[in-house]
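User: Please fill in residues for this 239-position structure.
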């Protein structure tokens, strides 16, 4: 029988995942593959989400403080199959990486990190750039949101984001979360040069809209950016 992971082990594993992700970015191709293998093992051990109480311990904040940030939409959460609201490990690791960058100088100030995320979202999500106004084509709001999201992803696209998308496809395949046809189409696209991938992600075509419905680029934007984008598209659609 496999025993459950303790709270201390969860915290240690997530902190290790954050360090491994940082090391991956600085490593050469051969070493990066080995680091990624260790990181994926820890991610499987922890699981896709953690309870808010565990997230608070990892981030070094009180549970009430974390709850306030969650309630304000500052930190992403998802509903588990049992109906509980939990923090995605990917969100937690991303926050921890940013905290680690300021730890020595500023004592891991989560509030400062979230304020900086908010500022970047306000400045970086330019809806007029992402969705120039056109009268010739009608879209549903979710389609516009997906288009704007992927156009912003396309502006930031690099080999690391593409590799993470490939890894996510593999995870979805193992978990039965993607149809083989769509996995094959995405793998074909992700084998293309960066410029071509960005072109398809940004395309306003029927084929591209269908492809974006199973996108492995989920989680690329911060929660602040995602919420800002959703709000901007809704406001555009209502105007």
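Assistant: Residues filled in for all 239 positions:
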């Amino acid at each position: 029988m496999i025993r459950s992971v303790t709270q201390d082990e969860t915290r240690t594993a997530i902190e290790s995942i954050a360090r491994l992700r940082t090391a991956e970015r600085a490593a050469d191709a051969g070493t990066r593959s080995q680091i990624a293998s260790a990181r994926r093992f820890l991610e499987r051990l922890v699981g896709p989400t953690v309870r808010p109480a565990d997230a608070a311990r990892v981030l070094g904040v009180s549970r009430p403080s974390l709850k306030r940030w969650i309630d304000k939409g500052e930190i992403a959460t998802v509903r588990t199959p049992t109906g509980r609201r939990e923090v995605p490990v990917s969100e937690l690791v991303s926050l921890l990486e940013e905290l680690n960058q300021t730890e020595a100088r500023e004592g891991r100030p989560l509030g400062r990190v979230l304020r900086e995320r908010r500022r970047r979202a306000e400045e970086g999500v330019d809806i007029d750039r992402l969705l120039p106004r056109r009268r010739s084509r009608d879209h549903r709001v979710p389609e516009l949101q997906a288009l704007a999201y992927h156009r912003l992803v396309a502006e930031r696209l690099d080999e690391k984001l593409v590799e993470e998308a490939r890894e996510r496809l593999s995870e979805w395949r193992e978990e039965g979360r993607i149809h083989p046809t769509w996995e094959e189409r995405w793998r074909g696209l992700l084998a293309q040069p960066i410029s071509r991938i960005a072109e398809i992600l940004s395309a306003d075509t029927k084929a591209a809209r269908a492809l974006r419905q199973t996108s492995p680029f989920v989680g690329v934007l911060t929660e602040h950016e995602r919420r800002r984008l959703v709000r901007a598209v809704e406001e555009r659609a209502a105007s």
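For context: The longest strand covers residues 85-88.
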